[in-house]
Amino acid sequence: ISDQKPLGCWSVKHGQILTCPVVCNFETHEFIAVHDDKVLRIWKSEDINLDKAFKATLSAEVYRIHSLPSAGPVVLFRGGGVRTLDVLLEAPQQEIENVISDEVIRWSGAFMEGQEPVLIFTTEKDGDFFVYVQKPKLSSLHKYRLEQQESSKPLCFTAHVTNRTATLLCLYSNDSVYQVLIPLQQDTEEEEEEEEEILSKSLLLKLSVSGAVLKGTSLVVLDKDHVAVLGSLTAPGKEPRECLTIWNTKFQTLQTSKELPLGTTGQLWCYEEKFFLTHGKVLTVIMYKCETSSLAAAVGKLKDSQTPDVSSFVNWNTLEDEELVVSFQSQESVALKSESRMNLRSRRNSVAKAQPETLSVGQLLLNLKDASTYVLEEELRQLMAKAPTPDLQATIGCVVTALTDRCKTNPKYYPRNFLLQIVETRNLSYSLCPDLMAIALEKKDVHLLQICLERFPDIPEEITYACLNAFLSISEAHLQSIDVNLDSVICYIDVEFDDKEVKTEIVENGFSAEMEQDMCDTKMPKEAQSRSDGESCPVGPQKAALLNAVLHSAYTETFLLPHLKNLPARQAILFLRYLYYLYVKCSEKVNTTLPGIRSPTINQIMDWMCLLLDAHFTVMVMLPEAKELLSNLHKFVRAQVRFYSELNKIEGSLRELQRLNHLRDSQTYSIEVLEII
């Protein structure tokens, strides 16, 4: 999520439908899915084709699979039956009992009580709501009726288990949260038939503050004293606004809230102290950590100078994709810098025990806001030198942000050497200093951009494209005067001395220009051949080194392709010529690897070549200057395919030869003749 890169994608066949959320089996590191209600699929991350994954057809329709870290997955069927995955896989066609009659499951959750998994689910029938508690390993089942509420009904549920008691929280349509306590009973060997017990509920929280009412749609528990509610905040005379809110249930107060102007789906998830919600078209992840509840914290009257205001319970700065702003009101904002721009962090428990050095970071940066350039840089250098190890990354992020803020307010100010020193010696990321590369692009600082592309793991595709466009646009003459790291090109690129090209022709991998000509039955003019056949590099060493940095940058094809389509045709052709040159160079080597430090790999070259052709194929076909390049590329690839096809034909003989070499006594001299048929 931090790098915004997909790690895997699997699809069911056309016509099949995934009918419940996919979960991960923590014990086996496998994914579990159900499609078409009854077909169970299990696969691992390295599996590519979902159709070839493990398949089991069940005898009843599945409602939901719940995965518990220490107990394995639990399967809940639409009829209310529950099985652990292990028991289910022993006999997939086993009969599943119908526990509920004419009831519809509205919510379910799985929890651990000691060493035993407990599954709780709620159902509805004719306006009545029921609660079921099942212990699948003990074959235990208890059914309860939920006390009715006049003129309102439950909208969503959540629960947690502590001290042999399940606490069910219900968000009702009257803008209130009710609490229901369910004892987790000890089961006797012979259970007598009991009457249906009615669960009473108590009012936990009214979702209203200062005349505004929150129409909640999702509810999650943070800890025993805090809940988060996603919904629409309505106030008299104002338009409803979607908000994420955090409430203190102990003192009935609104802890903090944030408006979501781009809208949500009404769904909120919480897992391992992180919120997950969709904001517009973006998945937003919010990290939080609740402090021990106190009345002073609940009403924002903490007297301890070392503890931030309650208003900073969660720092929301990055939720709307705004720039990361250095906030000096609390030390927690310093810790925020170590997270992705998609991530938010609330203060941690240690905030109340914060060291004076942590507080001095924000105060120092605030004091340096209007300081002279010399004083600013000297103080920032000293700050990085004495930064404590746990907060080092956060401190450096604040330092870079302070410098970029100064650059934005003063266009004449640009501490190039200082920024280069920080990027080269510190383990930074794009999310720690998102304005840095934008300012480097504005200043045309290609050396800094090169270092960032090589070192930052989470550069957005839009910035990667902007760097590529800038590198291709800069003239070779201008690049001659710029300091660029040439380590990635110096070992293979053709360099000119006194207007004479120095080339080392290595004929390996079964390829040479003559062979390529013979196999394609095509003659090329010498002028065209020297220009297009990949023998000479179409760009200078400086530009080649910059382009190599782009090739090394991580990207997602789906996000990069729309930007790549905006690349001017002339620059696209130049880039394709360079990729073709690299492809030929790689093919000259037996191991298809270019020498040098951070040199592009054959996979990177091929991927970018395919991307570029996908983005500009129609334009290139129409342009006369590109036709010859495409033709030569086609011929070269066809020659390579033919060559490897010939190798495949003698693969069996080569393996036999290798086997004979192992059997032969290496100290005995002999001459053998092998006939290859």
TrEMBL record:
User: Does rRNA processing appear among the keywords?
Assistant: yes
User: What InterPro entries does this protein map onto?
Assistant: NOL11, Nol11_C, NOL11_N
Q: Does the keyword Cell membrane apply?
A: no
> Taxonomy-wise, where does this protein's organism fall, top ranks first?
Eukaryota, Metazoa, Chordata, Craniata, Vertebrata
* Domain Nucleolar protein 11 C-terminal per the UniProt entry, residue ranges: 363-675
Enumerate the subcellular locations listed in this protein's record, separating them with semicolons.
Nucleus, Nucleolus
Pull one GO CC term from this UniProt entry: nucleolus
Task: List, in alphabetical order, the GO biological process terms annotated in this UniProt record.
Answer: maturation of SSU-rRNA
Query: Which key words are in the record?
Result: Activator, Nucleus, rRNA processing, Transcription, Transcription regulation
Picking any one GO molecular function of the record gives: RNA binding
Which named protein is this? NOL11 protein
Q: Where is the Nucleolar protein 11 N-terminal domain?
A: 1-289
